[in-house]
Aerobic respiration control sensor protein
Amino acid sequence: MPLLANRVLELTMRLGVVRFGLLIAAFEILFSMLVTVVLRGIVVGELHWVDYLRPVLFGLIIAPWLALFFTYLIKQLGESRDKLAQAHSKQQALNAELKRKVSELNREIDERHNAEAQKQQAIRYLQREVAERRDTQNKLRDQAVQLRSLIDSSPDLIFYRNKDGVFSGCNLAYEQLVNLSEADLIGKTPEDVYEDQIAAQVRVTDYKVLNDLESLTYEQWMTYPDGRKAMFEFRKVPFNDARGNLQGLFGFGRDITERKQAANALEQAARDKTTFISTISHELRTPLNGIVGLSRIMRDSELNDEQHDFINTIYLSAVTLGNIFNDIIDLDKLEREQLEVAPMPLHITELIADVRAVAALMCRDKKLYFDYQQRGDLPAVVEVDGTRLRQVLWNLLGNAVKFTQQGQVGLSLDISPAKNGKISIEFRVSDTGVGIPKAELDKIFAMYYQVSGQGKTKAVGTGIGLSVSQRLSQAMGGSINVTSEEGKGSCFTVSLTLPVLSEDQLPDATDIELPALHVLLVEDIELNVVVARSVLENLGCTVDVAMNGTDALRMAQEDDYDVFFLDIQLPDMTGFDIAESLMNDPNQRLRETPRIALTANVIRDKQEYLNKGMQDAVSKPIDVGLLTMALARAFGCVDEPVLSAPAPLLDAPSGQEESVLDTNFVGQMHETLGSELFAKSIDMFEQLMPDYVETIHNQLLSGDDKAVAEIAHKVKGAAGSVGLQRVQKLASQAQDLDHPAWEQNIQEWAEGIAKYYPLDVETLRQQLVTLDS
Ligand code: ADP
């Protein structure tokens, strides 16, 4: 709207319509008057009052209309202006809205741009990811193929089972063992794949692995489809998923048949070695025993001093030689960890006198001075294994002499006063010989160790003596130590604490009064016969000699003997065979005549002899005292209990079935079941046994003692159920892992079971026939 109009409108609004109308009228009157006056003045040149009145009248008449017209106009104008203003503000609002929308739109567009950019980025990322994944998958596939070929190329068995014991996979080696492809194997259980016994073991070991969540190793014989048997070492390991949940187990099996065979061959070689050593030492001992025995007999006969000395030297040399054999046997025992000591009451002063005599002789030969010192008093009797103590001291003195070229060898005893019934003695063997370098002092007790650079002396020994001496000292509860200075000499100290006994605790053979006995001496070696015969005759016995088993058994029937002395190794049979025959003889007198073994072996465990039908055993070379004691025990001349005879392996032939069979039980079973059913039970037992025997054998090879005991338990039950007493007894021992000598005997028991069950089944069948008739 033009500015003027606006002003007019504002003025109208301010003055109101009436006042504005009057203003307009006044203005119009004035304007008309002005115009009239000007026009009349110019045109007419004169003015009349009418000229003034007319414009006023006109003005008055026209003014209201004019005012009305203007008012209306102005009002219209005002409304128009308001509308305009309204329209304007609407327009503005619309504009603002529009602006907002536009900016919103812009933002949205921006966002969309961003989103698009992000989308593009995400797509790129995804593409990269997809590529990477494809890569990874390819790598994984490659790795899986590699892993598979690795697993398949393994000569070891690999298999996995889930926790329900169902196969989930295996490698090629396993496929070949079970003769099933992996696809066929998956979903199968051990029972579907293995024979019952193996499946049972698999189940047991699986259970252990999954239950204890620990790996487990065991050995098991397996059979290939072509019938080839192989010993496997199985290792089972539990496995979890990524979240640590147990999934099942991995199994690995390694064919250790060759290793086992090698180990068995080694064991066999060790056994052969032991047999060889004992055979050789037996062969050597036999003539040596003759020398020891005869030289001792000669020494006690009428001789001049020189002869006595010579014979004594022969005697002591032979005894030393015997000790070397003992060393060799000890070495073998050391290797088998069977070195033992047997403490017995002993006159220690006599032992020391013996040792001094030997040492003095050895020194005299080498022109060395032998010195003996003793601090403190020796008790009369102590408890010690005299043979072993003598062996240790002789070995130390022997070394001292060997490694000393001049000067002296000393033996000194430091005896501390007895305390709590025990005495401590330090036996010190010193020399002025080559000595031992400091660096070697620790090593000389090792097996076969010899100090180098000790001149000629080193070739003489074996390097065994000190090692054996140390073990023996330790076995006697003591110790052995050495101090030495190179070039000056050495000093070995054996410290022992020994129980002190009273004199009367020492069985004194010389006081024993033996009856005049009629003796059958069974011995095949002339020299030994001479020695034994003279010893026995000195004891007042009359002696008949049989040089072989057949003669012995014949002579036993022909004459009344009070006692049999039985050598073990005879040309036609063993002393144990003779003992068994005598034990089973129908003649009660023969069965009851004492049987004493004469053995060239060291008696490790007398029970072994008792188990094989002897009442006692005396080792060669014969010790008069020990032989006297054995006879005294057999004839009740001493309080010492007579060693009880073992239960015979077999009874007299008439009652043979009794120890093999539980005859009472067999009789009852026969009565209850009847012959046919009982025979069926025996058949079943016979069918079961080969498996049991093989499993025991395999488990023994694998060293699984528990499994051996378990099978032995089954054998015990099975044998018991048909009355096979002997097999039952053997199995009962084999099942008892707590048996103190299980380890040492299990092989024998297992062999006994295998050997006796077919024989005993035969006896049982015969018994059934007898019962039937
Ligand atoms: P051997 O005497 O048969 O060689 P030992 O086991 O008795 O075997 O001794 C082992 C080694 O210890 C000897 O070879 C020797 O080197 C050393 N030895 C032992 N006693 C003495 C000693 N009295 N003086 C010097 N060296 C010794």
The chain has 23 helices and 17 strands. The pocket of adenosine-5'-diphosphate is lined by residues 395, 399-400, 403, 431, 433-436, 444, 449-451, 454, 458, 461-467, 490 (CB under 6 Å).
